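Continuing the batch. This is chain 6 of the set; chains 1 through 5 are on the previous pages. Same settings as before, nothing changed between runs. Recording input and output for traceability.
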Amino acid sequence: MEIYLDANATTPVLPQARAAALSVMAEAFGNPSSIHGSGLRARAVLDEARATARRVLGASTGRLLFTSGATEGIQTAVLSALTALRRRRDTGESLPPQLLYGATEHKAVPEALKHWNALLGLHLKVVAIPVGLDGRHDLAWLREQAPQAGLVCTMAANNETGVISDLDGIAEALQGSPALWLVDGVQALGKLALDLDRRPIDYAPFSGHKLYAPKGIGMLYVRDGAPFTPLIAGGGQEGALRSGTENMAGIAALGAVLKALESGEVFASAQRLAERRERLAAALRDAFPGVVFNAPFALSLPTTLNVSVPGLSAKLLLDLFDAAGLRVSGGSACGASRAQPSYVLEAMGLPAWRTAAAVRLSFGGADADTTLDEACRRLRACGESLRASCQIPSADEAPRHAERLTRFVVDGACCYVVADEASRRAVVIDPLPELTERLAQWMRCRGIALAAVLDTHSHGDHASSAPALRAAAKDLLAPEAQGHRVDALGWPLDQDRLALGALRLSRLATPGHTEDATAYLLHEGETLRAAFVGDTVMPGALGRSDFTVSAPLAFGPSLKTLAERVGADVTLLPGHDYDDRFATTLAIESLAQPLLDGVLRGRLSAEAFAAEKAELERDLPPTEYQTMACGARVACARAAERVEMSAAELRTALRGAVAPVLVDVREDYEVRLSPTGELAPESVPLSTLLNALPRWSALPADAPVIFFCRSGNRSAQAAKALRRFGHAQAWSLEGGLALWDAEKISAPADGLAFAI
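Output for chain 6:
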């Protein structure tokens, strides 16, 4: 059963609301502007809904119009306020020079300000009101700036943190200011008493789908005397405030929700909601030692928890919770797909690790106690799964299995652990500061000794995190790691190779990206298995060589040396992998990168190569993670290739002459929470995919390898990686398990099959 804890993004529709909407569509379906009986019945529904809304909002006066949602309400309010300012300007009156909005405001507000400010030709300064660590507005700052403001926009409660604004304090700070005041009431509806009659709020938009009504219906309150300009002109509906035939099904549904709120029989009291939040908080503390709550409970809605867990990324937590059937988000639903940290938490001044790792749990006032009980049980199960898979400390001291090669990625930067299970020793290559504690935990849980920490090159913009990792894993250092002196990249000064049981590492100087750039060659016996090449060669790019520590004229010769030592087809493991391609070879990259092909084939001298490369690297923009780009990327030759396999195609593959290999690429902590049984005969987490690529590449050409994960994103990455290594029959299950959990999976006597 799905446990939905993302109510701040949207809510299910209340049964009473569904019934009201269906009743209107079936019986009172008339146009409320019509004067016949059907129209009058529709008008009665509309009027009753508006009257109920006025009572709930404490708005006996002022205008209250129905909209499509809060975004339309915000647009209308901003347009109204700024149009009034332009009229004043057109009559020769001087205007306040700025428009203010809360730094933690939903993006709909500053974007609306910028849009209408430019479109109306006002060109006023748009300024964010700072907030404190508690997420509340800096009232002293606002008091000082308010006299120069034409419009001030704040929210009643924040959608990411649940922090409740001090509306009375804001009202006091605005006394004497010419500014109009817009309050985003979306998250407050049904949770806070807004008392619009007694507060000098000029505009307050609301959205029904945040409170168990359908999407596409909302409201906008406009104080008597506040300027108003319709956003939508036409037939004059809603008293000529908002034209267009009213969304009667939505209005009836919203009215039913507001009636249920008034009755007090459906929605839990504030005290009950606070008790439920405390139960969730206790479960989070049990599951994740060290969990941090990013907003003070005393100042927040009782239905919202925003948390960060040391050492665990937001993506890891989201995948974990989703595997447990807990639907949560990484912040605002409107920005959840983006790579950037939470701007709300950044505005509060929280540490970078908390802003990047934050996860929001939000529940609704109509949720059942049993739902919260099950949510708490699953949260604790999530903690147990992480302990069992070495993500957080566990009392169980039995060493866990260690794969030969494990890859960790942070904002496109790659770190590798090379481990030998027989000798229980490992080497970390290109450590990342964000992974220090996680890497130490990884080795400690597996009973692995740390033999060395290596960098493939020095860093011009920051120091290596190798010393921090050695300090964090001090109790895990192998004897040779304690006694040997090492160079600046971590290599033992008196050794030409590092032995890990049957594995050994040697090094190869590859100056170019930096003067000390080094490749580490991984051998098993006499066979060269892979080369860790740092930023010398990346999938779709060559490392840039325009740093002060670079050696651009040495880059071309280094590539030729690398080709001579490793050959065209040995796996290259990069220091950055911005496009999730995992690994590459010189043969693959020569086909995609003319510059690389030119130098390897002798068509370009070292000087010509350096010159063309410098031109390619001119004015490189930051990456999508807002980090420095470490190379100029070229287009991926397979970027448009389709790897998704549909339900019908999967059915055909399962009945084909060649049995497909089905691979679950979710991480172990996810599989433990939602095992797929007979669906996946093989489980290879994406973090250890590199170990299996050579084996799958050697399969017969007609043998399908079908990957799946939660959403289809990671499985598509795996399929594309395998295709890059020459196996054309690599596929990703379309939509992943998220779209397949309603399907019936069976294993008949004649083999695996889907019943769809």
